[in-house]
Amino acid sequence: MAETDQERTEEPTEKRKQQAREKGQVARSKEMGTAFVLVSAAVAFLWFGDGLYEGMRSVFRQFFELDRQQAFDPTQMSKAFAIAFGEIITPLLIIFSFILVFTFFGNSWLGGINFSWKAMAPKFSRMNPLNGFKRMFGTQALVELVKGLAKFLVVAVSAFLLLSWQYDNILQISMGQMPNMMENAVDILMWMFLLMCCSIFLIVVIDAPFQLWKHQKDLKMTKQEVKDENKDSEGSPEVKGRIRRLQMEMANRRMMQDVPKADVVVTNPTHYAVALKYDDGGPKAPVLLAKGTDETAAKIREIALEYDIPLIQSPALARSVYHTTELEQEVPQGLFVAVAQILAYVYQLRMHKKGKAKRPKKPASDLPIPDDLKY
């Protein structure tokens, strides 16, 4: 089938991933959480079960040793319950804390820690019976059914293998004596429980990568969604173009305000125009106040005529200054000689207008411009 814009073929953007996390949509493996809970519980009872066993043993011994008078005395019974609670509370807290830590780790390992109010909000769409039937007979329900059958088979096979392995030891339990018989039975039971829980990790090894792949697939976007997101984050091309035009217009207005300060305007004569200023007390080299082509160049020439600023035609120099110099920057060193000749002519022209000097000759048409600065 030919790919269309409505197919989710594009990888999710960072914004899409962030929005998904805010909604509580992260990769999670229920099998991983279940495996960590069961295995941590088995390990906790193996490591800390002795303390719980001794506490329970002490509690039962205390209650069985109560005489009739103590049993019917509320004060004595309250003390007995307080002592019993003190005997078992510490090992229980240790065991449950151990399980809690590994449960938290197991459930947050795959998708990380994420808290979302949106995920906690009630969704009335889930109360729709039609949607419920879709979930019951959809692809996800089929996947869960397959995982359930796989877990059953894995646990059943593991139980059979473990029972076969411990068959002789189980038969020998009945030949033992108390309390060693009970201790051996509990020890065998706990180790078999731990190994059966570890067998669930066979499902986790398959389910965790599948959940990562499914999460990535669910977040994929259509080409149109990617385009819309780019517009939202960067702005539409029309708006960006209008902003650029407004910025250019503002820059041009500021530039035109500097033209009356120029000492000379060098032209192409029609396509280029650059306004230069030289301040004896300022920079060592002339500074570019304004530049432009076509309509902008015409506007610069118009302002120059209005403020009686000399217009000098030098196409090569105008192009070189335009392409090599930014606004309010000094002209390149390679153009110093050519610009100096123009400024010298302007100075002599001013003296002539004041009647203090003869009319100067116009600058040569072939001003000295290095080849690497010619345009």
Briefly say what this structure is.
The chain contains 15 helices and 4 strands. It is mainly α and 375 residues long.
List keywords for this structure.
membrane; disordered N terminus; about 375 residues; cell membrane; mainly alpha; Flagellar biosynthetic protein FlhB; transmembrane; four-stranded mixed β-sheet; FlhB; name from scop; 15 helices
Please provide a written account of the structure:
Among the domains are: 30-109; 258-354, secretion proteins EscU (name from scop, 3-Layer(aba) Sandwich). The chain is 65% helix and 5% strand. The protein is built from 15 helices and 4 strands. The protein is rod-shaped and about 135 Å long. The model is unreliable at 1-5 (pLDDT under 50).
CATH class of the domain at 258-354: Alpha Beta
Order of helices and strands: HHHHHHHHHHHHEEEHEHH
Form type = rod-shaped
What is the tally of helical segments? 15
Class based on secondary structure composition and strand pairing = mainly alpha
Strand tally: 4
Which fold name fills CATH's third level, the topology of the domain at 258-354?
name from scop
Sheet with most strands: 4 strands, mixed
Strand order of the largest sheet: 3-2-1-4
Quaternary status: single chain
* CATH architecture descriptor of the domain at 258-354: 3-Layer(aba) Sandwich
Beta-strand portion reads 5-15%
Q: Let me know the average pLDDT.
A: 78
The low-confidence runs, each spanning 5 or more residues with pLDDT under 50, are 1-5
Q: What is the helix content? A: 55-70%
**Alpha carbon gyration radius:** 44 Å
Distance between the termini: 54 Å
